[in-house]
Amino acid sequence: MASAFLLDMTRCIGCEACVLACKAGNQLPVNTQYIELIEHTSGTFPDLVGGFQNHRCYHCADAACVAVCPTGALFKEDGLTRLNPDACSGCGYCVQACPYGVPKMQNGRSTKCDACASNVSGGGSPWCVTTCPAQALEYGDRDEIIAKANSRVAELKDRYPKVQVYGETQAGGLGLIVVLPDDPAMFDIPTDPQPVPVSVDIWKGVVQPVSMGLTAVAAVGAGVLGVIARRNHLAELKELEAREKAGVPAGGSESTEEEQ
Length: 260
Known about the structure:
Layout: E1 3-8, H1 17-25, E2 36-44, E3 47-55, H2 64-68, E4 74-77, E5 80-83, H3 93-97, E6 104-106, E7 109-111, H4 117-121, H5 127-131, E8 137-141, H6 142-156, E9 164-166, E10 176-180, H7 198-246
Parallel strand pairs: 1-10
Antiparallel strand pairs: 1-8, 2-3, 4-5, 6-7, 9-10
């Protein structure tokens, strides 16, 4: 079963309860947070409209971060993007590949939201969902979340003419379904993010296999050279042993009868 978040930006009041709950529940270090509320202003003076972006992991189905990760530290589970920090090599490829700019480097390793995997597996809910006072956040079966989002959009059409569901199809289908009261660009969200950038495809399909192949060839070559060196060393030892038995000094040659 694929799970997903529902984020209703028509209900979000910007209180940052989700930010604080996420930091506390996941015991995040100072200067690290998985949710950011970013203020922005749109329109032309004096007709300005203020708002904010609820920036967090979108849990892409075609996740570029997962595609480019060389160690498997980033992976898909239950429709969400998980992270095993112990497997992270600190290469930073995920930071460069994500179209939403989500993964960050912390102490040499990647860090991002993993949808509170440990808490949910124990029967709980993601910390941000549990604490949202405006009920702007929900978590559950993705199909049910999408149905609920579309129902809310139908109810909000009169109030927000441009209201829409974001995430149903973007990047292969997101694990974060968002009810937006306006166009995605108004929230600094890419309208049609590339599921996996071309550079990632090239890296995964060409550069990574070639580099791994070269590493394997180098390892095999080193092994072969080691075998040859050991064989030569054993041959030298046998020759030295034979000389000693024949009474030939090291570096000399056996005496012939004519020489004697």
